[in-house]
Design a protein that fits this description.
The chain has 233 residues and is an alpha/beta fold.
């Protein structure tokens, strides 16, 4: 599919605007008993996870139109996750499979003291290996499909995809395309310090694309971390 120029036929109908969500989708393993640490848990159940994918599913469930762009391992978990996207009405044209890397896994719990605990398995995982050349930019650009004009309205992303190459370059390229196409950019940094080389690397990486966003979702804790100040100021 090629991008349309300005000469769009007046008779062409405009399809609902897409929310294109970019980033990671993974398997969360959650203790089967609430309030325990990961070490204390006697068993886990699996659940789909990944903040960008959660947004895509939520938009679809609320009656909107959404798509997900990301990479999965060519394994049982990867195919399960893409099927979950489809079952939730999410456009999966931007999903790819990697035969040489596994789908990411995370063990996560909320302990009785209210503290969250994470343990990630990404060495590297397939989502980290998405390249700029593999991007389906037709999901972002305005394109004609089945006599309709499909145009994305919002490009949503997090910061996990900024941590390593080649996914960082793919993220930057997708954001560049979104800005050029006039999309609103929605940013949820979703700070996960264990995934970054250091706290300062996380701070620098997250802030590096700060100015590209039209909307930024942050908790008070994340504001305090990123600004090194009082979130109430």
């Amino acid at each position: 599919m090629a991008p349309l120029g300005d000469g769009v036929a007046p008779a062409a109908a405009a399809a609902p605007g897409l929310v294109v969500s970019f980033g990671e989708m993974l398997i969360d393993f959650v203790p089967d008993v609430a309030g325990v640490s990961l070490a204390e848990s006697g068993g886990f159940f699996k659940a789909p996870g990944g903040a960008p994918a959660n947004v895509a599913c939520a938009v679809s469930k609320l009656g909107g139109s959404s798509a997900f762009v990301g990479k999965f391992g060519d394994d049982e978990f990867g195919h399960m996750l893409v099927e979950i996207l489809k079952q939730n009405g999410v456009n999966a044209e931007g999903c790819l499979f990697d035969q040489h890397a596994r789908t990411a896994l995370a063990f996560v719990t909320l302990k009785s003291n209210g503290e969250r605990e994470f343990m990630f398995y990404r060495n590297p995982s397939a989502d980290m290996l998405l390249t700029e050349a593999e991007l389906n930019l037709d999901l972002i650009r305005r394109v004609r499909k089945k006599k309709k004009i499909r145009r994305a309205r919002v490009f949503h992303y997090g910061s996990i995809s900024l941590i390593t190459e080649p996914c960082r370059s793919a993220h930057v390229a997708a954001t560049r395309a979104a800005k050029a196409a006039g999309l609103l950019c929605s940013y949820d940094p979703n700070v996960r310090l264990p995934l970054w080389p250091s706290a300062q690397a996380a701070r620098d990486g997250i802030i590096s694309i700060w100015k590209e966003a039209d909307f930024i979702k942050l908790s008070d804790e994340e504001v305090a971390f990123l600004t090194q100040g009082d979130p109430n100021d």
